[in-house]
Design goal:
Layout (H helix, E strand, L loop, with lengths): L1 E2 L9 E6 L2 E2 L6 E2 L8 E9 L2 E9 L9 E3 L2 E5 L4 E6 L5 E7 L12 E6 L10 E6 L4 E4 L2 E5 L4 E5 L6 E2 L3 E11 L5 E7 L2 E7 L8 E10 L8 E8 L11 E3 L3 E2 L2 E7 L4 E6 L4 E5 L1 E4 L3 E5 L6 E6 L2 E6 L8 E9 L2 E12 L4 H28 L24
């Protein structure tokens, strides 16, 4: 509604033109119905005293399509059924329908029409709902449909490098076969039960793809027998399933090779001549080591093997057995050596023992003699008197006395 207000006496006569076309209106207002484009209208007010004009620029904005989709966004698993309603509350809709490669409908009266597919087997379905208005114009709306498919299988491989050697770096690869959409895919890596890496994908596609993720590990000895696995998850947003679709790979068990490590270090042993002595050697390694001793063999030495341990036994050691005994442990991952030094100590000679015993005996005799004379020096002698004794006469001795 355009209004041209003027003042004048006598009252003017009005004339309207729109885009150069004369309108029949001769009042101070002009009503335009069903505006479809930008329009320029001019109002001219005229009396015998003169005239005046006023220009109006009418801007026609695109009209919103009066259609509602329920739901407007949907996530569907490949092969599952799907349905979307298209409805309107507008009164100027003549009819409506669905255009689609499959599941389309004919031209039907308002207010509701449904697109329905019993088994969705299209990766990029593109249905659109259209409405024809009474003025002959049409508008369309399209739903956002995400079709997903979980992987056929997920696996972890060592990429052909085989067993790992301690201290070196290796790559494990997680292969996710036949999945979509890859931009919603997340791959999680687990070492045992611990999450060690989460990988996402920047590629955007709605078709089936094979995806892969790589985990680089620096091999440690305690990884031997440890399991690695990966898990593929589809994060489909709030419109997706309540529980994340996920597929986990079978576990990959790490085989770690490491060089021998001795349970004992280098050592030195001292023994007396004639005694017995043993040397044992074993090592922790994978695969098991070949153990050997390097030494000068003798008639009184013997080497035995028990499991992964080798033992040298020397019976009644002599000076000929003295020296360095070398244990060598070797496997495909490396080599290690261990040294044992054997020192022989002579026994004390019998002559020295005899001399020591004789010296001890002499010392003991001297001590006893000293004690004896010391006691004798301190003895006291006494004589008893004869009670009531009388003189005893002395008689001359005979000549031959």
């Amino acid at each position: 509604m355009l209004t041209c207000e003027t003042e004048g006496n006598p009252l003017p006569v009005y004339n309207w033109t729109c885009d150069g076309k004369n309108m029949l209106e001769n009042t101070n207002s002009l009503n335009i119905t069903l505006v479809k484009r930008n329009t320029t209208c001019t109002c001219t007010a005229t009396s015998y005293l003169g005239n005046i004009t006023k220009t109006f620029h009418v801007h026609a904005e695109p009209r919103g399509c009066p259609l509602t989709l329920t739901p407007s966004e949907i996530v569907v698993k490949f092969g599952d059924p799907v349905s979307i309603n298209c409805s309107t509350s507008a009164t100027d809709v003549e009819g409506m329908g669905w255009e689609a490669p499959f599941g389309g409908t004919g031209f039907e009266p308002a207010p509701v029409v449904t697109w329905r597919v019993e088994k969705l087997e299209e990766w990029t379905p593109s249905p659109s709902c259209y409405a024809t208005l009474v003025d002959g114009s049409q508008c369309t709306v399209s739903p956002v449909i995400t079709v997903y498919k979980t992987p056929d299988f997920v696996s972890v491989s060592d990429m052909g490098h085989g067993p790992m050697v301690e201290g070196r770096e290796y790559d494990l690869q997680c292969d996710v076969i036949s999945v979509t959409p890859v931009q919603n895919l997340t791959v999680k890596w687990y070492r045992g039960n611990e999450t060690v890496l989460t990988a996402m994908f920047n590629e955007s596609t709605e078709i089936l793809v094979n995806a892969s993720s790589t985990l680089r590990i620096s091999t440690q000895r305690d990884y031997k027998g440890l399991t690695f696995r990966c898990e593929a998850e589809l994060h489909l947003g709030p419109k997706g399933p309540k529980f994340l679709p996920n597929i986990s790979s079978p576990p990959y068990t790490a085989v770690v090779l490491y060089a021998p490590e001795f349970k004992k270090g280098n050592e030195s042993k001292e023994v007396l001549q004639g005694e017995n002595v043993t040397f044992s050697c074993s090592a922790d390694s994978n695969p098991p080591s070949n153990i050997s001793w390097i030494y000068t063999a003798a008639v009184n030495s013997n080497m035995t093997t028990e499991g992964q341990q080798k033992t040298i036994t020397i019976t009644g050691v002599t000076s000929a057995n003295a020296g360095i005994y070398i244990c060598v442990a070797e496997n495909e991952a490396g080599r290690n050596t261990r040294f044992v030094s054997l020192v022989i100590k002579d026994k004390v000679p019998l002559l020295v023992i005899g001399a020591l015993l004789a010296a001890f005996a002499i010392g003991l005799i001297i001590l006893l003699v000293f004690i004896y004379y010391r006691k004798r020096k301190n003895w006291h002698f006494s004589f008893d008197t004869v009670s009531n004794a009388t003189d005893v006469p002395l008689t001359p001795a005979s000549s031959n006395a």
